[in-house]
Specification:
Elements (H helix, E strand, L loop, with lengths): L1 H21 L38 H11 L1 H21 L5 E11 L2 H10 L15 E15 L3 H67 L5 H35 L25 H11 L1 H21 L5 E10 L11 E10 L7 H67 L5 H35 L5
Antiparallel strand pairs: 1-2, 2-3, 3-4
Helix pairs in contact: 1-5, 1-6, 1-10, 2-5, 3-5, 5-6, 5-8, 5-10, 7-9, 8-9, 9-10
Length: about 475
């Protein structure tokens, strides 16, 4: 009896513990956003529990997913990354606007050339001025300076385009996390229900073995059975109690994993609704159709393609450094011996400057080479993502097919095991079989039930895994 229960519990415990570990690392090759959700740039204050879902009401799977989408920290981080990318886009777009600044300068000199320039700018020159010995001269210059980039070899445009693609990548990365989060919440929820079912099997087994032990002790006291039979059933009782302890721990692990995915502390009360008679998933579409669907829908694939476009823009930006640059500038201010401002002494300067870098110690050329290497990396990364998605879809498809076949096999196994136990029980009560045979029949029955539970919930987890692999929840 213990062998079957323990085998199923090991599966449930592993699934629950894996979900608990992975829930803190919702990172795909990318990060998540629903197309109907607008990204935010300011972090919202974290909530202990959304008001729309009171703790008193048990939460079904859809409710758990809704809470996770609102409260999961990984998804919130991904949303803030979109806001960060948008801010960087605004920063890049600032290159297309003129720049204005104001400043005040104070100078003192007794250099004849500089002093003469100051005196003329201050409108104080006269024929009687001693140009060779002007003495100490001071100058205050308040001014407003404006500059505007006319041409930078297309670098500003390509930088803006690359950053804009970065915003799209951040949104796609959020879509990847959203897709993964829903899959993990669903899978952990089913793992929690499976662990509860395994616990119920273990508790029923304890009751059955205790009843058997009581009857066997009575028979031993009347001299109709051996002491070894009593000891064998006592050993069996210890085994099923050990299985019950493991099953209870598996339930608690899955429960903790659910709260972690929902962004709730471990001591936060949470009621999870039970699912009676969980549906059996349907057979999936053909593998080729699923792979084609995943390559169209998975945000990781789109994000990898955007990364290539980003690297192309960055390469063009690096090559633009070889081209000339042109800037316009204007300055309005005054020169005076005193800090005060007077329009009688104001002046205006304006012009255009063009420059071309002839030699930079190969800095620009090496930047171009680095950008070319990054482009090659992005293309290989995109190929790697596509291969990974195809492999993930196939693995999820095969896992679901296996689970559906196991459901049919275990269904027949449960019926056979129940009938075998009924017959062996009658034989044991009649004294025609040993207690060992009776215990084996109990073990077979419990193992059949445990495997049936595992197959059903494995099929449900495999179904959500296939949905995640095809990008249904992006």
């Amino acid at each position: 009896m213990n062998r079957g229960i323990t085998a199923a519990i090991a599966v449930f415990s592993c699934a629950a513990f894996s979900a608990a570990l992975c829930s803190g690392e919702l990172v795909a090759g990318s990060r998540v956003s629903s197309s109907d959700e607008s990204p935010t740039t300011a972090a919202a204050a974290p909530k202990a529990f959304p008001k729309a879902f009171p703790i008193e009401r048990p939460l079904a799977l859809d409710d758990l997913i809704t809470v996770a989408l609102e409260n999961n920290p990984d998804l919130r981080i991904a949303t803030e990354r979109i806001g960060e990318a948008q801010a960087r886009l605004g920063e890049a777009m600032s290159a297309f606007y003129p720049r204005l600044k104001t400043r005040v300068a104070y100078e003192y000199t007794d250099n004849p050339a500089l002093a003469f320039s100051m005196i003329v700018s201050q409108r104080r020159f006269s024929p009687d001025s001693n140009i060779n010995h002007p003495g100490g001269t001071t100058n205050f210059r308040p001014e407003i300076v404006g500059t505007y980039s006319l041409y930078r070899g297309g670098q500003d445009y390509q930088r803006g385009k690359a950053v804009e693609l970065g915003v799209e990548v951040s949104a796609l990365e959020r879509g990847s996390i959203r897709n993964q989060l829903i899959q993990m919440v669903s899978s952990t929820y089913y793992g929690y229900l499976a662990a509860q079912a395994a616990l119920a099997v273990a508790e029923r087994s304890i009751e059955a073995v205790q009843s058997q032990l009581k009857q066997t002790r009575i028979r031993y006291e009347t001299g109709t059975t051996l002491k070894s039979d009593v000891l064998s059933i006592e050993v069996q009782l210890a085994e099923v109690r050990d299985a019950q302890i493991k099953a209870a721990n598996a339930v608690e692990l899955a429960y903790t994993a659910i709260k972690r995915l929902l962004g709730l502390p471990v001591d936060q009360p949470l009621a999870v609704a039970r699912l009676t008679n969980p549906p059996i998933p349907r057979s999936p579409a053909t593998l080729d159709d699923l792979i084609a669907q995943s390559l169209k829908q998975r945000p990781e694939v789109e994000a990898a393609a955007r990364q290539i476009d980003m690297r192309v823009s960055e390469l063009k930006m690096a090559r633009g450094a070889h081209l000339p640059k042109a800037d316009a500038f204007v300055s309005y201010g005054q020169d005076s011996r005193n800090p005060g401002f007077s329009t009688a002494k104001d002046n205006l300067s304006a012009g255009v400057a063009v420059e071309l870098e002839l030699f930079s110690g190969f800095e620009t050329s090496e930047r171009v080479v680095a950008a070319e290497r990054k482009l090659v990396q992005a293309r290989e990364a995109e190929r790697r993502v596509r291969l990974g998605v195809e492999s993930e879809v196939k693995a999820a498809y095969l896992t679901l097919q296996e689970a559906l076949e196991r459901i049919q096999v275990t269904k027949a196994s449960v019926q056979a095991a129940e009938e075998a136990l009924r017959l062996v029980t009658l034989q044991w009560q009649a004294g025609t079989v040993t207690v060992t045979r009776y215990i084996d029949a109990n073990v077979d029955r419990d193992q059949a039930h445990s495997l049936a539970i595992a197959a059903r919930y494995d099929a449900l987890r495999a179904e959500v895994g296939l949905k995640k692999a095809t990008g249904v929840w992006r």
